[in-house]
Amino acid sequence: MRRPWVIPLVVVAGCTHGATRGPDPARLATRIHRSDNPVFQGALLQLEHPARYDDRYVRITYPGGDVPQETGACADVVVRALRHAGFDLQKLIHEDAKSGAYPHIKTTDPCIDHRRVLNQEVFLRRHGQVLSTVVSAKTLDQWKPGDIVSWRLFYDRPHVGVVSDTKGPDGVPYVIHNVGVVSEEDVLTAWRIAGHFRFPAESHRR
User: Which string of DSSP letters, residue by residue, matches 105-164?
Assistant: First the structure.
């Protein structure tokens, strides 16, 4: 299995990333139609008009609020993918935060709480399926399109993305994420994996 890169290929927003698959509209439409996973479909749809990275605080409506479609942070890729699947992470995290289980939420704010990777991790550990973070020849079949993966980048900066159905020559799946613009890239093993989740859990999928 590959090692994480030692020499950064590109540096954007403090992150490195490698091989990128650009959107092909016809192929993208086929992949969306072929998939039966609405979370993955929601991630693929974001490749049609990729949002540029912008993690600034924005006042949005509640529930069902979103930042401008042409912008977004890494966490917004997950928010939009889950919303396409019928799950409003904004509302889910805002309501779940009343449990007191979110150490990074001192005062709830539905404009931003769901847009934080650390809060998404808490929610997914509480309500999703927690899966192996190991990437090896023996575990590749555990990484499914639509799974959510979180990492720790340089200086423990949290990052998150959605696992794709595209795979590299070694069978490792690409990830749809945003460090400069929403892209589908070969970055699963580029950084330290902090979490691997499936939402809804396999037993609750449609």
Answer: -SS--TTTGGG-HHHHHHHHHHHSEE-----STTTGGG--TT-EEEEE-GGG-EEEEEEE
Phi-psi region of 122 (alpha: psi -120 to 50; beta: other; left: phi over 0): alpha
Q: What is the pLDDT along the chain (206 residues), one digit of tens a residue?
A: 444 433 233 333 334 445 555 678 899 999 999 999 999 999 999 999 999 999 999 999 999 999 999 999 999 999 999 999 999 999 999 999 999 999 999 999 999 999 999 999 999 999 999 999 999 999 999 999 999 999 999 999 999 999 999 999 999 999 999 999 999 999 999 999 999 999 999 744 54
The Cα 115–Cα 76 span in angstroms is 6
Token pair, residue 59, equals 């006042």
CATH topology of domain 20-204: endopeptidase fold (from Nostoc punctiforme) (3.90.1720)
Pairing mode, strands 52-53 and 71-72: parallel
Phi-psi bin for 93: left (phi > 0), alpha (psi -120 to 50), beta? Answer: alpha
Give dist(CA 164, CA 154) in Å, integer: 23
